[in-house]
Amino acid sequence: MWKARRQNAIELAKGKCEVCLQECKKPTVDHIIPERFLRRYFAGKDPHHLINIIVCDAKCHGAKTGIDRRFWRGPDLVGFVTELGLKNWPMGRVRLAFEFYGIRISKYEIDAVRN
Fold first, then answer.
1. Closest-CA residue to 114 (of 89, 77, 78, 93)
2. pTM, whole model, 2 decimals?
3. Integer Cα distance of 30 and 53 in angstroms
4. Which of 25, 77, 88, 94 has its CA 20 to 30 A from that of 42?
């Protein structure tokens, strides 16, 4: 299932990083909300749903990996979302993923990252 979803996401992104919007020759597919977090705290929910996966280039993926590592020291959802916003992740997509999984974080906290 993961391989099919991954390929679907890559095709939908049309060769662009969905974070920085640059062309990406070797796309990486990442979970917006870390798979490990969803499996631990939201068992039974599919972490590979298309709403939770995003195509990115190596630079944006590397930045997200650092954010994920800091998140696991917490976990601090507001800090996690704030860091994604500071790295220019598409906050509309982030909000949709949080809403899809029923993770409560204020819309205003997510929107405030962009202001």
1. 89
2. 0.86
3. 5
4. 88
